[in-house]
Structures are given as C-alpha cells and as structure tokens.
Amino acid sequence: MTNNAKIPVVVSGATGKMGREIIKAIAQSPDMSLVGAIGRQYLGEDIGEVVGIGELEIPVTDNLEVVLAQAAQESQLPVMVDVTHPSIIYDNIRSAIAYGVRPVVGTTGLSEQQIAELAIFADKASTGCIIAPNFSVGVILMQQAAITAAKYFQHVEIIELHHNQKADAPSGTAIKTAQMLSELGQSFNPPLVEEKEHLSGARGATYGENIRIHSLRVPGIVARQEVIFGALGETLKIEHNASDRTCYMSGVLLCVRKVLALKSLVYGLEKLL
C-alpha cells in the first residue's frame, strides 16, 4: 500500500448503534475508505443514507464472506471492524483471517480458550488482529489507575453498568480489568467471615484472584464501570462513564491503523498506546 492509498474497511454490525458511529467515523477519516457494510437490517439500502450522512454507494448486505473475499481481492491490506454479537464473533474473526482481512474487534463475549485459538490461527496466517474489550482511551486510564491503587489496597470489587440490550455479562472491560489486577501477583478480598448468599449470585461473579464483578443492565445507560477499593476507614472509587458512543471512535480508528503492521493477535487497546 502506498502512502497515499486509503485503508479499505469493512464494518460488520454496521446497522447497530455502535456500527453506525463507526460508519460515520470511517467515512469522515481521510486515510480510510469504506468498502463494505454488513448488517441484518436495511438490506440493500445505502449505509450512508441509513446512518444519516448521505449516499456512500455501499449497500447493506448480510453476506460477510462475499464482502471479505471482494475486499481481499481488491486490496492487500483490508481491515474488518466487527461489532456484532458474541454468538457469531468467533466465526467472523476466523473468516476474516482466512481471507487475509485484518480483524479489529470490539464485540465482547469470547472465552479465554477462543481467544487463544484465534491467536494461534492469526499467528499461523501472519495476519494482524486486534481484540479490544473497550475502544475508549479513558477506560485504559481507569484500568491503569486501578493497577496503581491495587498496590495499596487488599479489597476491591468491580461494578459495570450497561444498557439492557447488551448480550453478554460481565462486560469484556470488567473481565479485562479483573484480569489485569489478577496479573499483579497478589490476592484480594481475604475472607473475614463465612459468607452465605440467600439469593444465588447476590455477591456477583468471582474472577482470578477472588475479585468480585457485578453487572447491571438498565436502559438509559451507555456504559459505566466502577472499580471500588476499600480499607479501614476509607474507600477509593475509580469510575469511567461513557455518555455517548462517539468516545470510542478515536480508539477504533487507532486500531484500524495499527493492525496493518501486526502479524499476530493483540488483546487490549492498552498494548497499542
């Protein structure tokens, strides 16, 4: 690809709330070119008209493999941005890599085993892939602040809140945060009493080094996460609040640009900053 060539981008999940914002961001980016829009609604309609930015001459289709094959045929470095559903994301990523299209994935819900399998597949194909549980730079800063605070607190719990149309729980961001804290090599929340749940799940899910995660799903929220630390006589709450999906777009565009230079899978936006 020459320095003046634009990065061809396929958006999978284009008609969803997140996908619509990504379409706008790609269309307005001077170094990118939208070449495909995959969705389940508005089939055959121009995606630019669907998202309200005018005609882009890209019709919505539900045939991902045809679009991937065409993108790979027309360019050496196409990218797929996927924000679909946990039930199909694994197959979408494998299909993209098989066609030589570099996946940038914001869909959460992949298991650790699936991510490991995809890493092997991407490595064998020497194809870059980025899986980002969250595209917000603010979230990365929240996680880094939590890592710093964890050095001084033994007790921590995570509360994550999302809109009630989110399919998976806990969120990928909460799992990633708990994973980062667990990798510090220390144990959290030493038991002081023998707990008993009168309702199953009342104390949330447990991840890694005994870190509790609580998930809330209510309308009126885009995304919010709180990491709450406690010690004798004090608490520390680190919170990130996404009030609009536009906050994710700088991370999406960064990943589209960065994935071109990769030959393997990268998990987490923080590794690219």
Characterise the protein shown here.
With 273 residues, this protein is of the alpha/beta class. It folds into 2 domains: 152 residues, Rossmann fold (3-Layer(aba) Sandwich); 106 residues, Dihydrodipicolinate Reductase, domain 2. 33% of the residues lie in helices and 24% in strands. The strands form 2 sheets. The protein has a 7-stranded parallel beta sheet, sandwiched between helices. Strands 8-9-7-10-11 form a 5-stranded mixed beta sheet. Helix 2 links the parallel strand 2 and strand 3. Helix 4 packs parallel to helix 5. The longest helix has 14 residues.
Strand and helix map with partners:
Elements: E1 7-12, H1 17-28, E2 32-38, H2 47-51, E3 60-61, H3 64-74, E4 79-82, H4 86-98, E5 102-105, H5 112-125, E6 129-131, H6 137-150, E7 155-162, H7 172-182, E8 205-207, E9 211-217, E10 223-231, E11 234-242, H8 249-258, E12 265-267
Parallel strand pairs: 1-2, 1-4, 2-3, 4-5, 5-6, 6-12, 7-9
Antiparallel strand pairs: 7-10, 8-9, 10-11
Helix pairs in contact: 4-5, 6-7
